[in-house]
Write a structure and sequence with these properties.
Layout (H helix, E strand, L loop, with lengths): L3 E7 L16 E2 L2 E2 H11 L4 E6 L4 H10 L4 E4 L6 H6 L2 H4 L5 E6 L7 H12 L4 E6 L9 E5 L2 E6 L6 H4 L4 E9 H7 L16 H8 L4 E5 L2 H4 L5 H21 L3 E2 L5 E2 L5 E2 L4 E2 L3 E3 L4 E2 L4 E2 L4 E2 L3 E2 L4 E2 L4 E2 L3 E3 L4 E4 L2 E7 L4 E4 L2 E7 L4 E2 L4 E3 L9 E3 L4 E2 L4 E3 L2 E3 L4 E2 L4 E2 L8 E2 L11 H16 L3
The structure holds uridine-diphosphate-N-acetylglucosamine and calcium ion.
The site of uridine-diphosphate-N-acetylglucosamine (UD1) has 27 residues, from strand 1, helix 3 and strand 10.
């Protein structure tokens, strides 16, 4: 395969987004837009990836380095246009061989295979190949001025005449060049247009003038839609979710109401899992086969073992690791905790920073008191222990295997295996005392009314 350098552009101001967060850090399917684009560039077989960002974009550089440490960063000090931005990666393209692809960083549905369409055209002998598409609404996109198979120029929406604006075929997001052609032309771009910007799209006209062969490929709109504002962001999210839902159903996952289940880019769900309506998966979730996720549950950074049952109304937070056959019921929150096989936490509990053994029964309203305002402490409960309802396990604390904690206990000391622990006031019954109290209260009320 021919060597490929991808230059991803993300230095724009993103003004149409109206956000203090850089546009390409807004997530789609739980992954920043730029993460989708760098992944696509990687999947396309790029041997090197350059990313161009602006001076206030340290957060983008950080996020990308965390995902793909070998991406090379360049700064565009001032957003003077996409052509100016691509030129910032000079250090990488001066000695590039093979192909150079300039890719816009704001296309979250882009996949590796979309590169193939234009790279194949270069393989077939073209000098420049641009990815195009036919959006339902072409407003804002650059229009392709063609003559048969030849792409003569790209006219930006703002610079286009009424007639040119009627053209449906538009510039998508990948502009591919033979490296030497790109190098020869990149410094010839001028800024004589409505926005006084240096457009990368001008390379098309320049290449034609230089006698180069310029053509295009076509991608489906859903793959190459750009995100400039919040409604396009919502549309990208919708497209992402629809694809994930279909993929999971094809893989043997039951979604009772697909539209109401939301996945992340990395959600892993095994065959024969059932997911009820209104379930949200944040990043980092793996669900094993046979598990049932009941309605209105929110799950992120968690692992759910086979045949486990979660919810309705359960919240699994990062580090929740449920073994096989575990039952987590309604209004239960679990964070940084191992839950052993067959354990039951059925109602109204908070279990955090804990290790709960196999077959343990956690009663209604039990909480682990894991935080003293400064530090987190761990709670350990051994296999087969039984924690009575409405108990507080004040960490650090250990309840041994097979131990029984009486309901309503506040457990501050370790409990040895098979022991009964009672950490509550002893009950006192006073015969007739209730009746006397009520009589006193009634008399007081009547005297207030003057009766
Ligand atoms: C651009 C294209 C247009 C295409 C459309 C597809 C140009 C001139 N226009 O328009 O033909 O139909 O994308 O979505 O190329 N950027 C920089 N530095 C800059 C300006 C932009 O790095 O100085 C980056 C942005 O961060 C963004 C990408 O380049 O990721 C595209 O810029 P944007 O302003 O969104 O261009 P569009 O108007 O969408
Ligand atoms: Ca854009």
């Amino acid at each position: 395969m021919t060597e490929l350098l991808s230059i991803i552009l993300a230095a724009g101001e993103g003004t149409r987004m109206r956000s203090s967060t850089p546009k390409v850090l807004h997530p789609v399917g739980g992954l920043p837009i730029i993460g989708h684009v760098t992944r696509a560039a990687r999947d396309a077989g790029s041997s090197r990836i350059a990313l161009v960002t602006g001076p206030r974009h340290a957060a983008i550089r950080q996020a990308v380095t965390a995902m793909q440490p070998d991406v090379v960063h360049f700064e565009q000090a001032e957003a003077k246009g996409t052509g100016h931005a691509a030129a910032m990666a000079r250090e990488l393209f001066t000695d590039a061989e093979g192909y150079i692809a300039v890719v816009y960083g704001d296309h979250p549905r882009l996949r590796g295979e979309n590169f193939r369409v234009v790279l194949d055209r270069l393989d077939a002998g073209l000098d420049v190949a641009i990815l195009g598409f036919e959006p339902k609404d072409p407003t804002g996109y650059g229009r392709f001025i063609t003559d048969g198979e030849t792409l003569l120029a790209i006219r930006e929406h703002k610079d286009a005449s009424e007639e040119e604006r009627r053209i449906r075929l538009c510039n998508a997001c990948i502009l591919a060049f033979r490296a030497e052609v790109f190098r020869d032309l990149i410094d010839r771009i001028e800024n004589d247009n409505v926005q006084s910007e240096y457009y990368i799209t001008d390379l098309v006209g320049l290449a034609n003038k230089a006698g180069k062969k310029v053509g295009f490929g076509i991608a489906p709109e859903d793959d190459v839609m750009g995100v400039n504002d919040r409604s396009q962001l919502a549309r990208a999210e919708g497209l992402f979710q629809d694809v994930r839902r279909e993929d999971f159903m094809k893989a043997g996952v039951t979604l009772k109401d697909p539209k109401s289940v939301w996945f992340s880019y990395d959600t892993e769900i095994a065959q024969d899992v059932t997911i009820e309506p209104n379930v949200v998966f944040g990043p980092g979730v793996k669900i094993e086969s046979g598990a049932v996720i009941h309605a209105f549950s929110h799950i992120e950074g968690a692992h759910v073992g086979s045949n486990a049952s979660v919810g309705p109304f359960a919240r699994l937070r990062p580090g929740a690791n449920l073994g096989a056959d575990v039952k987590v019921g309604n209004f239960v929150e679990i964070k940084q905790a191992e839950i052993g096989a067959g354990a039951k936490i059925s109602h109204l509990s908070y279990i955090g920073d804990a290790s709960i053994g196999a077959e343990v029964n956690i009663g209604a309203g039990v909480i682990t008191v894991n935080y003293d305002g400064y530090n987190k402490q761990r709670t350990i409960v051994g296999d087969n222990a039984f924690i009575g309802s409405n108990s507080a396990l004040v960490a650090p604390v250990t309840v041994g295997e097979g131990a029984l904690v009486g309901s309503g206990s506040v457990i501050t000391e370790d409990v040895e295996a098979d022991a009964l622990a009672l950490g509550r006031g002893r009950q006192i019954n006073k015969p007739g005392r209730a009746k006397a109290i009520f009589a006193e209260a009634q008399a007081k009320k009547l005297s207030k009314k003057g009766l």
